[in-house]
Every structure is written in C-alpha cells, then in structure tokens.
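Record minuted for completeness.

…
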Amino acid sequence: MFLEGDLTTAPIPEFPAGFRWGVSTSAYQIEGATTVDGRGPSIWDTFAHDPGRIADGSTGDQACDHYHRYAEDTALLAGLGVSAYRFSIAWPRIQPAGTGPANAVGLDFYDRLVDGLLAAGVDPVATLFHWDLPQALEDAGGWLNRDTAARFAEYADLTAARLGDRVKLWITLNEPFIHMSLGHGMGEHAPGRTLLFDAFPVAHHQLLGHGLAVAALRARSTSPVAIANNYSPVRLAGDTDADRAAAAAYDALHNRLFTDPLLGRGYLDALGPDPAVVRDGDLDVIAAPIDVLGVNYYNPTGIRAPEAGSPLPFEIVPLDGYPRTAFDWPVAPDGLRELLLLLHERYGDALPPIQVTESGCAYDDAPDADGRVHDPERIAYLDGHIRAVREAMAGGVPVTGYFVWSLLDNWEWAEGFTKRFGLVHVDFDTQRRTPKSSYTWFRDLVRR
C-alpha cells in the first residue's frame, strides 16, 4: 500500500506553456437518466439488466445522475482548474434507434453542458463513442455489420452540426481494442459476444467508422480530431522463443491492430486483411490524417507462451513485484514512459501529437469520521505517471496533454459500483460529491 511518504520529494518538472491538463468521464458511467428526453436503449442498458453480468447487480440507470447535476460537476471542474474536460456523448441520446434525424432534446443537454464548460473556462473535449451503441443497431449486427460504420458517420455529422462551433477537440472512438476484445471476443462487456479472433470485423468496422467520422467532423468543425485507444507495453514472463513469439503476438493485437492502419501502415499480415471484410479503399479512409493520438494507459501486461491446446497464441499472467490497485492492476508508471517512447520509435514522423486521454487508478477510499476522503495511493499514482510523461517528453515524444481518469467515482462497467477511480468521491445513495485529497493535489499541480 502507498503511504504519503512514498511520494517523491522533488517537485514535478515544469511542463510547457499550453500543455493541456484535464479529467475524463463517459456518458453511460455518469449520466443516468437513461429513459429521459427520448434517449433510446444502448447495449449497456441491455447488458447491465441481464442478471449475472454485473459484479454487484447494479445498472447505469442513475449512475452519478450527471444529467441532472452537470452544473454541480462543472463547478467541480472549475474548482479543479483544469483546462479541459473530456466527456462522451451518448449516441442513443442523439439517435435513439441509431439512425434518422437527431433528437433535438438530447442534443440540448450537450448544448447546456458545452456552454457551461466554456463559461467556466474549460475546453470541451467530446468523445463520440464510448461503447454505448444503440441497441437497435446491435440488433442489426452491431459492429459486425459494415453498415454501422456509415451510421456512425451520420451520427458524427448530426452532433458536429450542433456542437462543432464550440467543442475544442473531437475524439471519434474510445478504446476500440477494449470494446472489441472484452465486448466481442471474451464476452465480459456489452454486447457479451465470445468470438475470440472472429471479432476482427468489429475492429475493421470501428476503424472504418472512425475514418468516415473524421471526414464528417471536418466538414462541420474546424476543431482538431483524434481517436483514443488503450495501450499496454508487454512484459515478457519467460525466456524461450515461444514466449517471445507470444509477446509479439499480443503486442500486435493490443498495440498495433488499430494504430498501424490509422497511421497508414495497413494491417499486419497475421491480423488481416480478410478480403470479405476489408474492401478496396477502406485503408485510405481509415488513414485519414488525425491531429492527436489519444493514449489511454493503466498498466503493462505480462505474457508467456500458452499451454498446448489454448485457443489464443499467448497467455496473460500476473506481474509480480508491483503495488496493486483495487482492480488488482500493477502500478507501473515506468510503463507509461516506455509506451510513449515505443510509439515514438515505432511510428516516427507519422505519429501525431499525443495526449494521454486516460490515466488513473481504483482504490477503496471512503469518507473518514470527519467526512474527508484521503487517498494517498492515488496521489502517488498520479505523481509517478505525470513524471513518466515528462520523462518521455524529454526523450522527444510529442505529448501535449494529460487527462486523469476520472473526475468522479462512477459506474465501472462490469464491476458496477465496486471500483472507485474518481478525484471526487460520490455517495451513490445520496449523490453527494466530496473532493478527495487527490483533487486538491491535482488542483495545486495544475495551478503551478
């Protein structure tokens, strides 16, 4: 366990002027109001209401009630002093069935949120897809269906037509690798499919949707466009040729499947292309230039060769010798520095500026007898990871922003309300917000 004394005593090195400090959230995890103002059901509504899917049996029906409390949360952002707030827009709030004209009342909510952020001096950073696909599109095949990519571009157009004059950075997709692997490969997330490597069409159609959405956004807005993916440096848990081959296979899947085609390299032969899925011209659409690459980092992954008969070409194993979060993830700040340097080395001049769009940790923090929430472990985590970013920048990596996950304790997908990532504690019974000691620490860092 981290203690206050674990923090490095030296001050964090200065960051360049204009470096973007922010925090992140996502719609289904905080908004609630899932049946308000014409919002349609998403795959996460369906998944969460399926008994046995969520660790504590909860749903996102209310979550943090941000839909009704966004003004209070905007005040927390203003008090934190961040320059940007990354939120996601709920596709089923804009197009309840995933097609057709925009639901004006749903867009009104984001109008109010964006205007409130700007009035508070906070740049709105909008993610279009953070996993909450309209259920009607899933019923038609979801991301396995090529048509979903076209529907995503249509949704991007409708959203940018209303908000494109004020959103300061657009992010098309959040963590398409995680949505493919946990949602369609392993069945741990919505929509709960267990396709393993047959989930490749989900990867390609998300990327195709991204490329089509880039064009739609640029037609409506002059703001920069990005995509945010999850990355994890691979740590070899063995010293055989088979172990090294397993590590290369995992790195190709987790770290290259989405980034190689985005940056013009196409798919590795081992991962595609499937001529039944990848059509002529698709790779050009996918490689449309982006202004920022969003990097979400939480931990490295231990890999060794699989047992005989395994359906996967690798085995994920725990990494020893690290402190652990409440999610049992290893705390490895140096993995973020390693990852950023790897991306810089791998893609060279093709790599756009990077913003770390998620970085955070879950701990079991709660108010003490005086109502205060002390979370020294989270402070130590952020201290280490922010230092790692600065070290990567000193090594030549073009990093221009860092967003903490998350502003609020929220509904944490398949874990329900059992994992707390926030700088602000939320009592999910009363919806009372209590800034933690990490909120104060990050506020002071941003001010400096």
